[in-house]
Amino acid sequence: MSGLNFRPGKKGGLRKALNKLFYCQTRIIPTPEPKFPFTGSGFTYTFSENMYTIVFKNNGNITFTNDCIIEYIIAGGGGGGGAAGTNPGGGGGAGGGGGGGEVINSFQNITNNQLINIVIGNGGTGGVSNTSNGQNGQQTAIISALFTIAANGGLGGGRGINADGGNGGNSGSGGLGGNGSQTPNIPATSGTNGGGGGGGGYFQLSGKNGAINNQVSVSLYGAGGGGGAGNNFNAFVANGLGGNIYAGNGGNQNIGASATSNYGGGGGGGGIFSFVNYSGGNGGSGLVIIYLFVPSNPNPSLDPNHNCIPCDGIGCIQEKASQIKSGNIEPIQTQSARITQLATQRLGGRTIFGDIGLGLRTNNTYLGGIEGQPGGSPRPLRNKF
């Protein structure tokens, strides 16, 4: 383009202008954003990196508007810890920890517009002082007309009887609870795969820990509660700990700790001190988590016949030029014609294309931050803007 020089202004330049003009002429029509992909109640959700994370902590329902595949985590309620028992001769047996609820992590095909009900299992109540075992946790379920997915609750921990510590409850997934100490010489044992820990015997023996869930990806959920400590008068021994921070610790001269809600952990077994026996802690309720991946818009289509609408960009304004220093450019010309004429046909005079980047919405047309001096001796022009 001999005899024509352009110097971009700070708000834009010819290359940018021509690129935007091309974009306008071959406007990309993106695939429409999907409508909100589910409806229902009783849940909270977040959206990040094309993934919906939908959490049910209470009963509810959900309906997906399109066929899809979901990933889910479901946990049953944890069992309650057993109560400590008093030995008539002094001391006593501590309660066993409650078993963690069953935890399942898998995938499921979903049919559009199908109602899915969510039932969250409650944790079991801890055993009452000197009288009862911990209650079992309840089942959590995902239920539709086409399928049912259920996670069993954990079993309650056994109560201490006389000097014997109670056994830990089994986990909902079949992990075994630890054994309570039955004699002064045999310590209690820990649970396995979410099972509750056994309670300590009265003769200065510690309670044992509950077990974490063996599935690493869901190890936050379904841990067993710790067994209570068996103390003989003023002697101190340790209580068992829950399998993770969300399961209940066993009592130590106090009540067994309750598990955190919505993690499916077992409650801690009750402790014993002298002639005082304590109740077990409650198991934690279950939960359901659903993951739904929504892909990005693939393969946008082109519309070469699109009539551009006003917008920020040289290719998107079909109005009159703001300043024309020569009559050789018709005011009614489109931008396409102006750019073509400026680049190939202008023999002299000056045309100003100004302030594209300001994004103004007026009756004026701002055609780009460049000043063109066509014709004559080539020379760079000062920055107009």
Outline of the structure:
With 385 residues, the chain is mainly beta. It has helices spanning 14-25, 335-344, and strands at 4-8, 27-29, 38-48, 51-64, 68-75, 85-86, 92-93, 103-110, 115-119, 140-143, 148-151, 272-273, 276-277, 287-293, 301-303, 323-324, 351-353, 370-374.
Description:
By secondary structure, the chain is mainly beta. The chain has a domain at 37-296. It contains two helices and 18 strands. Strands 3, 4, 5, 8, 9, 10, 11 and 14 form an eight-stranded antiparallel beta sheet that branches. The longest helix has 12 residues, at 14-25. It starts with a strand and ends in an 11-residue tail after the last strand. The model is unreliable at 1-28, 308-329 and 345-385 (pLDDT under 50). Pfam families: Gly_rich_2. Residues 166-180 have a biased composition (Gly residues). It comes from viral metagenome.
**Count of extended strands:** 18
SS field, number of helical segments: 2
Low-confidence stretches: 1-28, 308-329, 345-385
Element order: H for helix, E for strand:
EHEEEEEEEEEEEEEEEHEE
Rg result: 36 Å
User: What oligomeric state do the depicted chains represent?
Assistant: single chain
Shape: elongated
Q: Return the structural class.
A: mainly beta
Average pLDDT:
77
Q: State which percent range the strand residues make up.
A: 15-25%
Tell me about the largest β-sheet. 8 strands, antiparallel
What's the helical proportion of residues? under 10%
